[in-house]
Amino acid sequence: SVRETGVFVSQGNSAQFEYVLGLYPQVLKLKAQSKCKRPDDLIQLDDWYQNKLPQLIKKRGKDRYIVHEELVKTMKWKQTRGKFFPQLSYLIKVNTPRAVQTETRKAFRKLPNLEQAITALSNLKGVGITMASALLAAAAPETAPFMADECLMAIPEIEGIDYTTREYMNFVKHIRTTTERLNRECHPDEPRSDVADDETKGEGTATINSSNSSSSSSSNSVTAPAPGSKSTATDGNGASPAAADGSEDGEDSNSSSSDGSSADVSLAKNKPDPPNATLPPQEKKWSP
């Protein structure tokens, strides 16, 4: 239930998060089988978004960016996992290759200031808060969690879903609180960092250009959502008036780590804490 998921997010330990994260492939497969005519399409898209896209962006170096084809494919991934809005698919394709590279490069230069990065991405047609968070999570998984309805609902302090930059920054704050708690558990002697607070602060409130996009939906934190969500730990609906003009509001409910995270909290609670299959606790690092 949502309540149990909230308890897990606020109280779950590192071993339990690792266990739940391990359920992600299984949950993704079940979702693909129930939602898609060709389940392999979603599984392949998810692998591309979670693993290949971040590498492609990283290889471009300090002056990184996203190309038009990658923007279109990211939207396809997002909508395949969540709700499909034909108008968004059309608007994303309308962006010129030059505009895509220019605005994404501008946005990535603003990092770790998430508010300014989102403002830059909102200049692209069809890109709202949810889609922007997906792009930022691929480029900087250590900084930007993917915003998904399921992830928002898993946080007890967030009562409703509001597709605005302010709500996203509130979401980021809670995700970072969780990752800091998990890291303190794994690294008890490591001093607490104030970087997260600095990154969360922006120079003013970011506004979304309603002519191009909207305050996006909780996007695909598929239930995502968030990369701990898959993108956040490893790497990261409801229509609104903006949806009428092609914005992303109320668009999807996906996110890359929610998928596995909300799956079986009870299993994580009742199962003995398993050893970290990859790294010993003292070496484990969690990110948004």
TrEMBL record:
This is Uncharacterized protein. It comes from Anopheles braziliensis. Residues 182-288 are annotated as: Disordered. Residues 182-202 have a biased composition (Basic and acidic residues). Residues 209-221, 253-266 have a biased composition (Low complexity). The lineage of its organism: Eukaryota, Metazoa, Ecdysozoa, Arthropoda, Hexapoda.
